[in-house]
User: Which sequence fits this backbone?
């Protein structure tokens, strides 16, 4: 049965939002809606325009035999800056200083609306095919990894600090959690997860010294994978790191007397 | 500037999918699109119909001064059964038996497409306002909690088995991880998370004895909250539990000799 254009537009919009970073041949739509290719192309132009106007990303059309159309969720440059500034205000604007100079972020990391925005911020840096899998470490990296995975349409895998009987065979490595640490710790990943040769994006909630990120980089190598990038929500200052980790935000000042912090935009935008 | 109907339909569809379980007054749309109420109502009818036809849930209109329209993501009954059967086939269909009778699910819990479906399955049981917050326990409950939280548009909070310096003040309780356990364990939740009087949904990846779920129920009580329900992905048979936990799937047979398992539909649909 032929479908009215209005219904087709809504159905196609739903389809794209459900299937980000997935190439769909135009014939899928012409068959499904019993519509001419020219009509579908007009629909796609309307949807593309709306995605761009509402900061949802865009529709990209690929030519050729294996071509088709793909919804890519991202923020364009100006919106990306706005989103990171909004995140900065959210973290600066409330009482978040914890003893030891740590910053409280558990509320953000459990808020679906912030998580959706942060996931899209991270995804904005990568074109389809640039990342095959996301690696994170329990516990607070997980929500960030999941929200980025939703946008990039790739699986995410969780490195743990303890081995569980529910994991099956695992690979474990030793690492120094921070540069001046004296005690070596151990991280573990289930063997049957990361595929060899995967292009891996590492995501964690904070960076302080970089030992955990370096450990995850080594873990990815153990699985014969290539690390594309490592990204953290919040970089804590004061210690040099050897990694090229990208941070969305950076703690630039901790005033323990007044119990205030100052958080600035990290190097995510410039790197 | 007046907006064409086709653009309006796409923009409104995007808006609803971005803002599930959120009541928006009709005036928001008439203002935004400079359109008559009757036109917006026609649009809403088209979108509602598409949401229902594509198993995305529905649009619900509330009358009155604080009324408006709300997108509710859920599977209707027939689709809900299909989704749980698909999940059952996925788990039955592959080599998932681990030593000790545990089932390997790390792949599903890192797959954005399965997570989106499981989150919607769980959300299908609850009307807006029935759940204020989700409580889960690290690590493998987290992806399930997040996906349900995305659908229900409520925050989720993570109970941990260890205390971290990045958490701030916490509340800890002792619990017996399973009924015959001899060693008491300890679970911890950051104080500044669950609001008193919240209606809490507890989510975990598996149930075996029910001690962890009972611990989380006690934790919710410590925060003066009411537990609406507890839900697990997979129930392991063999031990009676005192809880009324709902399971999506249930392990009905573990054959250690042949290394096969049999998984059936849990009590989620019937309870």
Assistant:
């Amino acid at each position: 049965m032929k479908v009215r254009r209005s219904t087709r537009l809504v159905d196609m919009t739903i389809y794209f939002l459900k299937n980000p970073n997935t190439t769909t041949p135009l014939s899928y739509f012409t068959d499904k809606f019993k519509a001419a290719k020219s009509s579908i192309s007009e629909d796609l132009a309307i949807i593309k325009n709306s995605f761009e106007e509402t900061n949802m990303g865009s529709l990209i059309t690929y030519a050729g035999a294996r071509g088709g159309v793909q919804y890519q969720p991202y923020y364009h440059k100006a919106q990306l800056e706005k989103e990171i500034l909004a995140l900065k205000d959210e973290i600066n604007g409330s009482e978040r200083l914890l003893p030891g100079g740590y910053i409280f972020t558990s509320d953000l990391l459990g808020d679906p609306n912030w998580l959706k925005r942060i996931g899209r911020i991270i995804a904005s840096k990568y074109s389809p095919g640039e990342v095959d899998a996301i690696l994170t470490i329990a516990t607070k990296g997980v929500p960030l990894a999941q929200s980025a995975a939703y946008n990039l349409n790739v699986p995410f895998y969780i490195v743990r600090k303890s081995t569980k009987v529910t994991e099956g065979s695992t690979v474990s490595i030793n690492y120094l959690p921070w540069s001046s640490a004296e005690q070596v710790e151990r991280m573990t990943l289930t063997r049957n997860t990361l595929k060899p040769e995967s292009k891996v994006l590492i995501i964690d909630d904070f960076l302080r010294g970089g030992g955990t990120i370096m450990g995850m980089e080594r873990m990815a190598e153990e699985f014969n994978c290539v690390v594309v990038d490592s990204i953290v929500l919040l970089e804590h200052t004061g210690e040099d790191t050897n990694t090229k980790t990208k941070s969305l935000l950076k703690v630039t000042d901790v005033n323990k007397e007044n119990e205030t912090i100052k958080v600035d935009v990290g190097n995510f935008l410039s790197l």
In short: The two ends of chain A are 51 Å apart (CA to CA).
